[in-house]
Amino acid sequence: xxxxxxxxxxxxxxxxxxxxxxxxxxxxxxxxxxxxxxxxxxxxxxxxxxxxxxxxxxxxxxxxxxxxxxxxxxxxxxxxxxxxxxxxxxxxxxxxxxxxxxxxxxxxxxxxxxxxxx
Length: 118
Known about the structure:
Layout: E1 7-10, H1 15-18, E2 25-30, E3 36-42, H2 46-53, E4 61-66, H3 70-84, H4 109-115
Antiparallel strand pairs: 1-4, 2-3, 2-4
């Protein structure tokens, strides 16, 4: 895995014991070879979200990073989404409810459509 601030790798089944309770942050799920397959986030219970998403056998590892706010969660998730281009993500991360977040990745169509009012 390329250098990042992500902690790991860990087994997804250990998420509740490794990740602080009721914490916000982002995570990536990878196969046994370390290929990132999915990028996700939680604004409230990161460990539970990792455990839910990490259940499929194809996800052998997870990496995670804490965040201090919903906007920070969104920025981190966007950065990792664009960095890894994970095949199991169906679309770009959604802007959190109550936020006017803009994808921090220059040239991202999601940022451009928000700025144009679409």
